[in-house]
């Protein structure tokens, strides 16, 4: 039975289609072994690969590798081979992997179609294909993406062919599938699902008998499912709740100007930087800006975007998984399907363009029923979009992330130095890149570059570069001196604990310290080294800070307008009451004078 499934991110969709595939392949292998119990060669050959049994399509390379790793882990002791086929890696190496005839292939549409169109035998001979999976199908149907999906689907054998036709097509190849011929099972999975009421009727009618479609036909999950040969009796499983977001996700926002986004981002990472954090941007230019700035400020950040080489992207993913407090800055392509343990915080440096992308971004945390926190940095220009997002999720109140403004003077000092350093370094890098580009092209063309500058201009340029280098060195020295000390609020007192005022977090630390002190007095004095407690530094993860001192703000525009209208009416009423009171007093004074 075909399956169309939707569930929130991190709910185990990969295993939902992976386990049935492995189970069926094992069952068929057991039947084959019983039929060939006297033929040792046949029994041995059953574990060395065979025709392609399962083809899994994913929208991104990282997701393909992740799905492949999960299936390999599940099939570690089963002798079932799983191979990833993605772009950005050597095609020759992938062709060598396909020569081993893996039963399961996980890949991206571009590289799969490239190998199919070139006539790769293992990918073209699909007569034994038992499973076809479209993971993150909502991304597959985005306009301008994955035109190869339609071409791959057209290569698939008709799933509604008769058993007699299937036997005839597969009789020339002695495989496990020949022993128990079944119709192909199709899985379509997504984090969101929107199907019409008459979807099953459309499946019965079918897209067309010729199985061809225009590019616009793949404009919805419905059309994609029909094109993939989904049967009318398909099981539709929708486990998404009203919000589609993870149940234990705590959403919040920080309202600031565009210029202050960097300061608030640095505040979160330096004051509350606990656990893995992913920072999402909509543009690569913004990603490069903040990653360069954060590295200058001493925060070791990793990056992942579409213009990086595939090996560099995979290396960044592996390094992010290895570090307990890693920081990854990524674009929206990274938001879909990637599964990381213990991602505590997701920061939206720039708001996404759609609610679907917001769902996938925020779903990188609070996975597998764990807790997590998302923080959106909202500029005045982002307000309308943010309110629209909240409305699409039926949210009337969102917590405002607590920002201690006493830290901002110190943060702005560091940020000012870092921006100057980044500006000078970027300018020098561009000049060096232009020079090297000219030299490379001149050498390739056999030309000799002549120095067009005069002696005076060269001396002036040398002095300017020397001054710039000295300025850069001085700025770096000043910044390093600041970075050697922990970030402290402006009114922080080293002598008096309450010199900076007692914040809710500090008050909670004091309460925990007093409880620990009472417990230590009542218990044996065995572990003296565990009594050290940091007081006065709000170094707790964002989720805890939000739970301790977050404040709910109304984000319903209609309610806000109604509140403003009521407040304005109240002020107008008070003003009229005061005015009438003054007039009454004047009348009383006049009456008193007239009586006198």
TrEMBL record:
It comes from the Eukaryota. GO terms for molecular function: ATP binding; hydrolase activity; nucleic acid binding; RNA helicase activity. One of its GO terms (cellular component) is cytosol. InterPro entries: DEAD/DEAH_box_helicase_dom (IPR011545), DEAD_box_RNA_helicase (IPR050079), Helicase_ATP-bd (IPR014001), Helicase_C-like (IPR001650), P-loop_NTPase (IPR027417), RNA-helicase_DEAD-box_CS (IPR000629). The keyword Transcription regulation does not apply. Residues 1-211 form the Helicase ATP-binding domain. It comes from Aegilops tauschii subsp. strangulata (Goatgrass). This is RNA helicase.
């Amino acid at each position: 039975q075909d399956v169309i499934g939707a569930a929130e991110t991190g709910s185990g969709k990969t295993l939902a289609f992976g386990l049935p595939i492995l189970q069926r392949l094992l069952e068929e292998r057991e039947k084959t072994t019983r039929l060939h119990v006297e033929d040792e060669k046949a029994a041995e050959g059953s574990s060395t690969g065979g025709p392609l049994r399962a083809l899994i399509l994913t929208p991104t390379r990282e997701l393909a590798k992740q799905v492949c790793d999960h299936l390999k882990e599940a099939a570690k002791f089963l002798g079932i081979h799983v191979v990833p086929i993605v772009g950005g890696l050597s095609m020759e190496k992938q062709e060598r992997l396909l020569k081993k005839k893996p039963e399961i292939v996980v890949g991206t549409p571009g590289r799969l179609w490239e190998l199919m169109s070139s006539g790769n035998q293992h990918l073209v001979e699909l007569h034994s294909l038992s499973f076809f999976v479209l993971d993150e199908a909502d991304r597959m149907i985005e306009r301008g993406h994955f035109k190869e999906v339609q071409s791959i689907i057209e290569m698939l054998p008709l799933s509604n062919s008769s058993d007699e036709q299937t036997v005839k097509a597969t009789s020339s190849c002695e495989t496990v599938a020949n022993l128990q011929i079944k119709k192909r099972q199709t899985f379509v999975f997504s984090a969101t699902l929107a199907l019409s009421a008459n979807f099953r009727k459309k499946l019965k009618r079918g897209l067309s008998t010729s199985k061809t479609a225009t590019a616009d036909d793949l404009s919805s999950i419905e059309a994609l499912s029909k094109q993939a040969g989904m049967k009318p009796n398909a099981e539709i499983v929708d486990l998404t709740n009203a919000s589609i977001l993870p149940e234990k996700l705590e959403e919040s926002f920080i309202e600031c100007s565009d210029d202050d986004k960097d300061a608030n981002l640095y505040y979160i990472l330096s004051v509350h930087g606990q656990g893995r954090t992913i920072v999402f941007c909509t543009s690569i230019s913004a990603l490069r800006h903040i990653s360069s700035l954060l590295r200058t400020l001493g925060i070791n950040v990793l990056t992942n975007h579409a213009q990086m080489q595939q090996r560099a992207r995979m290396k960044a993913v592996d390094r992010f998984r290895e570090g307990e407090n890693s920081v990854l800055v990524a674009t929206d392509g990274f938001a879909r399907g990637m599964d990381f343990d213990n991602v505590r915080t997701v920061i939206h440096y720039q708001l996404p363009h759609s609610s679907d992308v917001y769902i996938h971004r925020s779903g990188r945390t609070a996975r597998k029923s764990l807790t997590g926190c998302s923080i959106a940095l909202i500029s005045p220009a982002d307000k309308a979009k943010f309110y629209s997002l909240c409305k699409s999720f039926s949210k009337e109140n969102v917590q405002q992330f607590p920002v201690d403004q006493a830290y901002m003077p110190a943060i702005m000092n560091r940020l000012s130095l870092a921006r100057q350093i980044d500006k000078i370094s970027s300018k020098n890098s561009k000049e060096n890149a232009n020079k090297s580009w000219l030299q490379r092209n001149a050498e390739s063309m056999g030309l000799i570059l002549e120095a067009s500058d005069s002696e005076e201009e060269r001396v002036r340029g040398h002095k300017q570069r020397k001054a710039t280098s000295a300025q850069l060195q001085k700025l770096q020295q000043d910044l390093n001196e600041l970075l050697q000390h922990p970030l402290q609020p402006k009114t922080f007192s080293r002598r008096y604990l309450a010199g900076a005022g007692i914040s809710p977090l500090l008050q909670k630390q004091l309460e925990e310290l007093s409880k620990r002190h009472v417990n230590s007095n009542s218990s044996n004095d065995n572990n003296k080294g565990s009594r050290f407690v940091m007081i006065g530094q709000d170094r707790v993860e964002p989720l805890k800070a939000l739970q301790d001192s977050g404040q709910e703000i109304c984000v319903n525009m209609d309610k806000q307008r109604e509140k403003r209208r009521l407040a304005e009416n109240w002020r107008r009423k008070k003003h009229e009451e005061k005015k009438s009171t003054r007039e009454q007093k004047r009348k009383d004074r006049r009456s008193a004078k007239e009586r006198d």
